[in-house]
Amino acid sequence: MAAESAPRTARDFARIELTRSILAEGRRQLSQVGPGELSLRAVARELGMASSAVYRYFPSRDHLISALLIEGYNELGAAVEAADAGESPTRLTKRMSAVLHAVRDWANANFHEYALLFGSPIPGYVAPDDTILPAQRVPIVLLRILSDADAAGLPLGSPSVPIPRAEKAAIAPVRVVVDGPLSDERLVRAVMAFSTLIGAISLELFGHLVNGVIDYDTHFDHVVDRMVADLGLRRVR
User: Fold this and answer.
1) Rounded distance between C-alpha atoms, residue 229 and residue 182, angstroms
2) Residues of the chain scoring pLDDT < 50
3) What is the Cα–Cα distance from 231 to 149, expressed in whole angstroms?
4) Contact indicator for 30, 38 with CB cutoff of 8 Å
5) Is 40 exposed, middle or buried (0-12, 13-18, 19+ CB in 10 A)?
6) What is this structure's pTM?
7) What is the pLDDT of residue 5?
8) Residues with Cβ < 8 Å from 185, sequence gap 6 or more?
9) So what's the pLDDT on residue 237?
10) 31, 22, 32, 20: which is closest to 61 by C-alpha?
11) Would you call 174 helix, strand, or coil by DSSP?
12) pLDDT of 34
């Protein structure tokens, strides 16, 4: 029998609450100055703490950015997983549409966090390995749906083209996270679909479609329809 974990002390709970407060203030600062200007000293000042106290929780700005990345990826991942779980497992079209819209909905509700996850790289910052698993949560859901499509024997929505051996090698790490069957062709299309998803949302949120698209909801719905059709889940409307 596994040993029971020791009960948390008042100090443990205080540390948890203070960590949450630091992260919350860090997120607030993201909306004010962006990740490049994020400052632990400013966080400490806003919380009425000595900067040395904040450094005990986050030794550097980069540690705080990493924690905010992990928090953001996990929130987005949870939203997408909930959207997938809300549909019948056999209704692959509904599942894919729900998760793609969930990404956009979360992005619209969390603009600055989305910009941190998928915006411009922060000069001098390199994300550590512990951001990898949270970042994989959304792709894993998308790949799971496509694996279910392969298992059900659904054909692709358009003719395939030969996949060079170099391309198979280039995206080999993606296959590692797939739990089930997935053809090379559908895997390539999955990577392309994820790029299309993030690209469409980023163009909208960062203002690059102003005067080009006048109804974002209608446009995104059609983008989703075409993605779903290309992936072999439904004919485009």
Assistant:
1) 17
2) 1-2, 235-237
3) 9
4) yes
5) buried
6) 0.90
7) 58
8) 156, 160, 163
9) 40
10) 22
11) helix
12) 87
- Return the exposure string of 103-116: e unless at least 16 CB atoms fall within 10 Å of the residue's CB, then b: bbebbeebebbbbb
Cβ-Cβ contacts under 8 Å for 235 (sequence gap 6 or more): 157, 229
User: What is the CA angle 77-207-115, rounded to 5?
Assistant: 35
In angstroms, the Cα distances linking 55 to 12, 35, 127, 180 are: 17, 17, 19, 43
State the amino acid at position 199 in one-letter form. G
User: Token digits for 136?
Assistant: 């994989």
In the 3-class helix/strand/coil scheme, how is 196-233 assigned residue by residue? Answer: HHHHHHHHHHCCCCCCCCCCHHHHHHHHHHHHHHHCCC
Distance CA 32, CA 126 (A): 22
What's the pLDDT at 14? 76
Q: Which pLDDT belongs to residue 157?
A: 83
Contacting residues for 158 by C-beta, under 8 A, at least 6 apart = 229, 230
**End-to-end C-alpha distance for the chain, whole angstroms:** 56
